[in-house]
Amino acid sequence: MSPRLKKVFLIMTVVVPFILYCVYYYGMMIKNAPYRFVDFESISFQYGYKDSLVNKYDSHTGMFQYLDKRDSLVKEHLRLTKDDLLYLHRKAADLGFWDFPSKEIGDTSAAASKKAVRYIIEFKYKKKNKRVIFDTDYFGNPKLIDANQRLIDEIKKKLTDVEDRGKK
Fold first, then answer.
1. Across 83-116, where does the E strand assignment appear?
2. CB-side exposure of 132: number of CA atoms within 13 Å?
C-alpha cells in the first residue's frame, strides 16, 4: 500500500465516522432540547412581599400590574415582541435557569415575610414549564442567588424598556 492510500484509508475509517457520529449526536441533542424557543409560549413574572404578590406580568395576556412610587396600583397592557421574548429566553439559558431548583425559599416566619421579596418566574413551553420561586432572604449558593438576581433584573429592565417604548 502506498503512503497516500494509507492516509486516505485512515481518514475514511477514523475521521469520517467520527464526524458523522458528531453530526448525528449533536443533531439529536438540539432536536430534543427540553426548552426550545420554537416551543415557547409565554413568560409569567410575579413579585412582591411574600404575603401579597401584587406586581405581575403575563406575556400571554399582556397584562402588567405594579405598585408605583405612591403605592397605587397601575394596570397596563404591554406586549413583548418576539425579539424581546427571544432575548429573555436566551438570557435565561445563559444564566442556567433550566437548572435552578424550583423552590429557593428563605425564612418562612411571619416577621421575615414582611421584609423579604418573593419572585416567581415561569417560562411556559408547549410540553414543559419551568417555574422558580425565589426569595430575597434565601441562603444558598451565592452563584445561584446572583444568577437569580441577574435574571430578575433583566426581566424588569425589559419590561421597563417596553413600557418606555409604548409611551413614545
1. 103-104
2. 22
Q: What is the pTM of this model?
A: 0.75
Q: Looking at beta carbons, which pairs linking 100-103 to residues 24 or more positions away fall under 8 Å? A: 100/130, 100/132, 100/144, 100/147, 100/148, 101/132, 101/144, 102/131, 102/132, 102/133, 103/132, 103/133
**What distance, in Å, lies between the first and last C-alpha atoms of the chain?**
75
Going by DSSP bridges, is the β-strand pair 117-125/73-77 parallel, antiparallel, or unpaired? unpaired
Length of the chain (residues): 168
Strand partners, 42: 124
Instruction: Please state the φ and ψ torsions of residue 56, each to the nearest 5 degrees.
Output: -140, 145
3-state secondary structure of 136: coil
Nearest in space to 155 (alpha carbons), one of 93, 88, 58: 88
Alpha-carbon distances of 56 from 19, 34, 66, 114, 121, rounded to whole Å: 48, 26, 6, 18, 10
Count the Cβ atoms, other than its own, within 10 Å of residue 110: 9
The string of pLDDT tens digits covering residues 109-138 is 655 556 788 999 999 988 888 899 998 888
